[in-house]
Structure formats: C-alpha cells, structure tokens
Amino acid sequence: VRMQKLGIPASICLMTQNLLEYVLRGNGGQSDDAYESLGVVGEDLHLLLLDPDRFLFDHDNQNTDNMKLLYREGKLYGRHKEETLITEAFCRISPGKSEAFFVSGFSGSGKSMLVNCLSDKVNAVGGYVIKHKFDVLCLCPLSGVMSAFNKLCLMIKGGDRPVIAKKLMEEFGAGVGLLIRLLPNVSALFPELVSSATKVEAGDVMNARSVSFTLLRFMRAVTSPVMLFLDDIQWADSTALDVIHTILSDKLNSCMFFVGTYRDNEVQVDHDIFNLIRELEMSHVHKTKLSLAGLDQSDLNTMISDALCLYPRICKSLTEIVFQKTKGNPFFVLEFMQSLQSRGLLRYNSLQKRWVWNEDVMRAEDITENVLHLLSSKMNGLSDNVQTLLRVMACF
C-alpha cells in the first residue's frame, strides 16, 4: 500500500509482495501467489517489457462499476497451428488449381474468426474475399452464393477491369446478357458490355446447372485469386454446394479458395456437405478438413490474463473454474466472464488497482454448470414478443 501511495504501479507492487512472500516461505510464511522460482519472476518481467500498456501501467477509472475486461480485439488464442494450415492451403492455389477448406466445430468455437484472419493475407497479394452466411430461414441458399459473386464485381480493382472486361467478352460474346441477369453488378462495373448484350427475356428461367456454368465462366475471367467464405453451410442445400463443386473442379483458369464452416453437431452423415467432400475427392480437388475444439487451459489462461491485465500465474485459479464451466469454448468464456462480473463474483478493486475474485466463494455459489443455461436465462429476460418470435423461428 505504501508503494502504491508513492505512485508505483500495482503490477510492480504485486511483484515485490510476491517476492517477499517467496523469501518468507522459508520462515513458515504461506501464500498462493508467492513466486516459485526466479525463472517465473523473469517471465513476469518479460511480460511487463513486452506489453507495458496492458501489464505495467495501472488502469484507473473513477467509476469501478463500469470497468471493462480488456480483451484483445482480433486476437486468435491457441489457433497458431490452424492458422498456419489455412494460410498454407491458400498459398497453394493457382489458375486452374483451386482448393477447398472445411472448418467444423460447435457454435462459438471461433470458426469464423479463424477464417477472417486470412483476409489481410488475401488482400495483400491482390486477391478478393467474398462472404456469405447462411441461416435456417433461407429459402433459397443458391441466391446467397449468387449474392457473394455479385459483390465481387464491385470489388474488382481499376487495373483489372479492362482485362476482365475483355475476357468476359471473349467468354460470353453477345450472350453476356445472361451473366448480367445473374450478376447485375457486372453492368455497373463494365457498362461497355451492356450495349453488346443480347436482351434476355424476363420470363426465361435459369436452372441450377445454367447458373453453375455461368458463374464458372465468370470466374475464368477473374485474373486474381478469390477466397469464397461460406459460413454455416449446414443450412446450405445441394444446389448451392453443386455450384461450389463446379467451380472448384475446373481445370482451366479459375482460381478460387473455398472455405466452408459448419456446426458438426448439427449435421448428419448424409448431409450435402459430405456429398460435396466426396465429389471433390473424385474430381481430384485438394481439400482440407479441420475441426475446432475449445481452447486448452493454457491458452485460456493467456486469454483471461490479457483481459484482466494480470500476470498469467495469478489467473490460474480463475481459469480453472472458467474452463470447468465452458470447456474452453471462446464464446461461452466471454458470456461466463460477463456473468461473473455482473454477479459481483469478479470485480475491480480500486485500492489494489486490479481485478479480484474469491475462488472458494465461486465454487460454493450456485453457478450454472452449463453455459447454455446461462444463455437461456438471458433469453428469458427478453420481451415476450421477442421470445415468441424466437420460438416461431425455432420451428423451422
């Protein structure tokens, strides 16, 4: 306390206290936070030097009730191996050599965040990233795929436009009207193509095979690699996934990296996803399957340490409880930590200038054993109209 009154950061005060406790251990002193070795001291010092804003300096706030946990935005914890796999897969694609990457896992396991970490790398090599997220209420999943490719037209950079316009004319000729009908943004991007397009009657119907072939011909004209990210493909149907197979199996000029994520606990063995995987194998298209589990206790401790701005060794008792309740699912961890804070079981101590908790009280409290119950209780706090709407949606 005296050191804090002199303006010394709480992290240094805590380190000094734990060093003294380490020395006093030989004289019968006891403390759970005492250092075990000088090597651990060195780890803490390295952390202070590596990220002083987070771990060295105090985070003062006059209203401690509004103190927020400082999670690192965009940080992928415990996914270095998976991030390397998806990056290497993208680097393998080339014209006429596309590839597929499937990521499965429970809701909240970080599938989308893993895929999104690749976006900057794709943009850095002049590629394009297009996305679509399916949902249970979607009546025509194929329209979602078409929408993603339609957005691609607006992303094409100025230098690529004349080259692509020329290739589209060579590919479609006067029949470019079919492409414009399928992807309306083509006309905005390449107005010179509109005048040469043969008019397509409004009553003409394009079947799924025609859509697949038209998108394939469009992709052959795109000169840069394209990453197509389809999220929650457990809600996609065979028609939408057939389009993906058609483009990926092309051996000419198309260059696409397809990433599909799905909840493996919501699909059966006969789902169209697995039919797509088998068809890609038969077409000799390279594919990778990856399953995301929860974070292990070490990576979870790093995440909690960052959020609390506390040394990792101090957070281990809290991490053990959080891991027990959430199994390391990142989304559940965030919800559970928020619940602890709202119940006052995790609070910011303005005198110590750090987050504190009582492990024994937490274990004795009637904290829900299943975080799904926690989410359910939050839903019960919604208005009656919203709850009714959710019940109706759950029937589909």
Can you walk through the features of this model?
- The protein has 396 residues and is α/β, with parallel strands linked by helices.
- 52% of the residues lie in helices and 10% in strands.
- The protein contains 21 helices and seven strands.
- The protein has helices at 2-5, 10-24, 38-50, 52-55, 80-91, 111-116, 119-124, 141-155, 161-172, 176-182, 185-189, 191-194, 208-221, 238-248, 272-282, 297-308, 312-326, 330-342, 359-364, 371-380, 384-393; strands spanning 99-105, 128-133, 226-231, 256-262, 286-292, 346-349, 354-357.
- A five-stranded parallel beta sheet has the order 2-3-4-1-5, with helices on both faces. The chain has a two-stranded antiparallel ribbon with strand order 6-7.
- It is elongated and about 85 Å long.
- The chain starts with a helix and ends with a helix.
- 31% of the residues are buried.
**Strand order in space, largest sheet:** 2-3-4-1-5
Summarize the amount of helix as a percent range.
Answer: 40-55%
Poorly predicted ranges (pLDDT <50, ≥5 residues)?
A: none
Distance between the termini: 60 Å
Our estimate of the beta-strand percent is 5-15%
Would you tell me the overall average pLDDT? 86
Q: Strand count, sense and closure of the main sheet?
A: 5 strands, parallel
Q: H/E element string?
A: HHHHHEHHEHHHHHHEHEHEHHHEEHHH
Derived structural class: alpha/beta
Shape: elongated
**Number of contiguous helices:** 21
Gyration radius from CA atoms, angstroms: 27 Å
